[in-house]
Every structure is written in C-alpha cells, then in structure tokens.
Amino acid sequence: MCVGTCSRILGPCLLTLSLLSITANIFLLFPSWEWQYLTMGHITKNALIVPGVWGGGLLVLPAAIHITAFGWRWSSARNSGTCQNMFLSIVLSALALLGSAACFILSGVGVTEGPLCLYNSTYNQSKMQQWDYPFLVMDTPPLNSRTQNYLYDPSLWNSVCIEPRNVVAWNIYFFFALLIISMIEMVLAALQIINGFFGCICGFCDKK
C-alpha cells in the first residue's frame, strides 16, 4: 500500500480510537451513571488511574493528528519535508504504542481484579458490609473457591456487590472495550512505524 494512502487511513482510525478510549474511561468513573461514588472515592483504582485517558487517549492523539495532517497534506504538514514528517510520525507512533500498551495492561488488571464495591463480608464470624474488592477476597462466600472466576459466572455479577448497582457488568464491559481499543491502537501504531520507515526511504509515493 502507498505510504500516503496508508497514512490517510491510519491517522483517522487512531484519532477515532483515542477519543473512544477517553470516553470509555470516563464512563468507568460513573458506574450506572451515578456521580456520587466518584466524590466519595468509591471507584475502582484501575479506573481512577484513567489509563484510557492518558494511555489510550492523550498519548495516541498527537500521533493521530500528525499522521492525519500529513496523510491529507494539510498546510501545516506541507511546510516540512516528507522524511522529517515521517520521522516525527515514527516517534509519535512509538509513544502511542507505549501508551496503548499501558492502557491494555492496566485494563486487563482491572478486569482480573474486579470492581471496588460494597459487599457482605465475614470478620471474626460476624457479618458486616464493607467497601473492598470482593473478587480478590477468597474467603468471601460464595467466592471461597480459589478455582472460581467471576468472569465465567454471571450469576455472581449482581449477587455479590450491593453498591454501585450493576458495577460488575459496568466494569467488565468498559474495561473490555478499553482492551479491544488499545489492542487495535497497538497494531495501528506498529503499522505506522513500519509505514514511516518506508516513507523515509521511498517518499510519499502517491503519484508513483
């Protein structure tokens, strides 16, 4: 594929994905559209780290904007040489690759650990309610089997966490969305790095 044509495809795709990543992470901060849990600090730590905002979003945006501008020959991109623009796209794409990889890892940890929520626990044979990560506390009924994984048992999603409402499904859906988005971003950023090397060697090549 021509270097210029490839840039015109990869740039807008990365731009769209970065905006989707930011949006998905913002939704994680407001489980079931409730804002009070954020003000109380009862939000899953991997959502509060906002990997979708800075990792899959802000670190990808510069590469997406530059690649789009160069691919569509916007006036700001025409002022510099092809090799210079391509080298800059390689650097920015490498930064986007690192950001999306960080988002992928942290989102995977968020899915594995499960959400922070209010649940019924047992302490010194007395029952109490507390805020914690119930799917990491292995002695909490019905999670006292170390082989049990809540991801494969949807019946646990609404039976364990009391508040926020539907927080387990909410976290799973949006963390999985971040996983998919960041995985695609990594692939596209890697492709643009390869495309950038070809651009430095072969030029824009639209008319070749």
Overview of this protein structure:
With 208 residues, the protein is mainly alpha-helical. The chain has one domain. 63% of the residues lie in helices and 8% in strands. It has 9 helices and 3 strands, in the order αααααααββαβα. The chain has a 3-stranded antiparallel β-sheet. Helix 1 (3-28) runs antiparallel to helix 4 and helix 1 (3-28) packs antiparallel against helix 9. The N and C termini lie close together (11 Å). InterPro entries: L6_membrane.
Q: What keyword list fits this structure?
A:
208 residues; mainly alpha; 3-stranded antiparallel β-sheet; 3 strands; elongated; transmembrane
Gross morphology is: elongated
Give the low-pLDDT segments. none
In DSSP terms (H or I, runs of 4 or more residues), the helix count works out at 9
Distance between the termini: 11 Å
Structural class: mainly alpha
What share of residues is helical?
55-70%
Count all strands and give the number. 3
Biggest beta sheet summary: 3 strands, antiparallel
Strand content: 5-15%
How many independent structural domains? 1
Averaging pLDDT over every residue, what do you get?
A: 86
Order of strands across the main sheet: 2-1-3
SSE order, one letter for each helix or strand: HHHHHHHEEHEH
Q: Calculate Rg over CA atoms.
A: 22 Å
InterPro entries: L6_membrane
Family: Belongs to the L6 tetraspanin family.
Keywords: Membrane, Transmembrane, Transmembrane helix
Pfam families: L6_membrane (PF05805)
